[in-house]
Design a protein that fits this description.
By secondary structure, the chain is of the alpha/beta class. Helix content is 47%, strand content 14%. The protein has a 5-stranded parallel beta sheet with strand order 2-1-3-4-5, with helices on both faces. Strands 7-10-13-6-14 form a 5-stranded parallel beta sheet. It has a two-stranded antiparallel sheet with strand order 8-9. Strand 4, helix 4 and strand 5 form a beta-alpha-beta unit. The longest helix has 27 residues. The protein is flat, with a radius of gyration of 30 Å. It starts with a strand and ends with a helix. Bound molecules: adenosine-5'-triphosphate (ATP) and magnesium ion. Adenosine-5'-triphosphate (ATP) binds next to helix 7 and helix 15.
């Protein structure tokens, strides 16, 4: 049964309301703020009626508005219906501005009030349904990360597991594999998500500026230091600090960063105070840090500090099926953005996408699709528009036995057909010469969702 909470100090009205409404609803009563809070906490009613004149200000409106505010805070989804006196339309409207759902003027017409309450319950149910839907509609395991390969699924699982822990995390991968995307996902899935994500690219800032950029400086610390300036590390306090291209950090700063990671305090340039900073540190690099250590270009002790957990992102060519799926999502995205009527890839284009090595990984794929969406005159993107060579395709992966070979080929053809037809099951089944149920069974077997292929993130 739907639960309604009546917040009303007048005993007579309490009775009247309860009597009028208790047939269809579970009616709870509270005579003041404390009782109301208790009922909210225990019963979580979806709808509340709230008398504006509550003690200790029964003749005024201050307590009523206070209670409205508190309800909005502790139960933001609950619908609040204000009960106001006859001549107080102004306050009723003010309450609606503050987030009340509706109002009813005293003395009220029973049927009108019932109707308002019923509508509020209906709306609540509808919103609840939508909240559930949007919770379940994440097609990819991580926001913005499009993937179907087991390799990438494992990365996503790892990110989900590591994100909530405060461990310093090192993200490795070739250029354009999505290191920054994964770093942001680590932040988004952590308890620091509401705080800042501060990124600094160690390769993009000249050595002599990087130190003040990271640690900040006091006024007069050097010529040009006209005012006290907070560094990126301090700026990220409570949040996540993303040190991109850590492999390019100059030696002098490696020592200083190590000190920060050990002490968790910063000293601004020209300053004396040790300022405590609480940040989750995520680093990334496309460089081979082990090689750099062997060459003496990267400190071993720093490496062990930053690599409490290592997330290795595979290159796009090592993720079977991903290129076609990501390409499909990019096609939809850029065709919509640029208002181009392009709906799909030609068969040659898809096999070319699968065969190509993608040295620039997803960034290169994105650029190629963007460009092709602009250049393509037809309604399907050709291999030519992608500047990829059309040709015959065979399996690239070396399967160990016949069963593996068959499965790899089956998955490849499946992903290709689904990508080509934008996730349309009938068309893909037609193309492959199988029935729809067979196609569904195959998709299940290889954990492929048509929605993933249709419209990505
Ligand atoms: N799995 C994915 N799904 C969708 N988009 C992706 C995926 N991986 C990467 N991208 C996109 O590709 C682009 C490159 O990703 P990102 O900048 O994270 O890579 P990077 O590894 O940091 O590259 P670089 O080494 O060049 O800095 C971004 O636009 C990103 O949103
Ligand atoms: Mg990057």
């Amino acid at each position: 049964m739907n639960k309604l909470l009546i917040i009303e100090d007048d005993l007579g009205l309490q009775k009247q309301l309860k009597w009028a409404l208790a047939d269809d609803l579970k009616v709870l009563i509270a005579g003041n703020r404390n009782e109301a809070m208790k009922q909210l906490e225990v019963h979580m009613p979806s709808v509340v009626t709230l008398d504006l004149g509550l003690p200790p200000d029964a003749a005024g409106v201050t307590e009523g508005f206070e209670v409205l505010n508190v309800i909005r805070e502790v139960a933001p989804n609950t619908k609040v219906i204000m009960l106001t006196s006859n001549d107080d339309k102004e306050n009723a409207l003010r309450a609606i501005k503050l987030g009340a759902y509706d109002y009813c003027q005293k003395p009220f017409d029973e049927n009108a009030l019932k109707l308002i309450i019923q509508r509020a319950f209906n709306l609540y149910a509808l919103e609840e349904e939508n909240r559930k839907l949007s919770k379940n509609s994440r097609v990819s395991p991580l926001d913005g990360v499009i993937a179907t390969s087991t390799q990438m699924m494992n990365v996503c699982k790892m990110v989900e597991r590591v994100a909530p822990a405060d461990v310093t995390t090192l993200v490795l991968g070739e250029s354009g594999t999505g290191k920054e995307l994964i770093a942001r996902a680590l932040h988004q899935l952590s308890e620091r998500a509401k705080q800042r994500f501060v990124a600094i690219n160690c390769a993009a800032i000249p050595e002599n500026l990087l130190e003040s950029e990271l640690f900040g400086y006091e006024k007069g610390a050097f010529t040009g230091a006209v005012k006290q300036t907070i560094g990126k590390i301090e700026h990220a306090n409570q949040g996540t600090l993303f040190l991109d291209e850590i492999g390019d950090l100059p030696q002098s700063l490696q020592a200083k960063l190590l000190r920060f990671l050990q002490e968790r305090t910063v000293e601004r340039l020209g300053g004396r105070a040790e300022i405590p900073v609480d940040v989750r540190v995520v680093c990334a690099t496309h460089q081979d840090l082990k090689l750099k250590m062997d060459q003496g270009a990267f400190r071993k002790d720093l490496y062990y500090r930053v690599s409490e957990v290592v997330i290795d992102i595979p290159a796009l060519r090592e993720r079977p099926g991903d290129a076609a799926v990501i390409a499909r999502v990019f096609l939809d995205r850029y065709a919509a953005k640029m208002k181009r009527p392009i709906k799909c890839f030609t068969k040659e284009a898809i096999s070319a996408i699968e065969r190509y090595e993608w040295p620039g990984n997803i960034r290169e794929l994105e650029n190629k699709i963007k460009r092709a969406v602009i250049l393509e005159d037809g309604d399907a993107i050709s291999a030519e528009a992608l500047e990829l060579e059309a040709g015959n395709d065979l399996l690239e992966v070396e399967p160990a036995n016949l069963k593996q070979a068959k499965e790899a080929l089956e998955k490849q053809l499946l992903v290709r057909a689904l990508s080509q037809f934008g996730g349309n099951i009938s068309q893909a089944a037609g193309e492959l010469g199988v029935s729809r149920p067979t196609l569904y069974t195959m998709m299940k077997k290889y954990s492929i969702e048509s929605s993933v292929i249709k419209s990505g993130d």
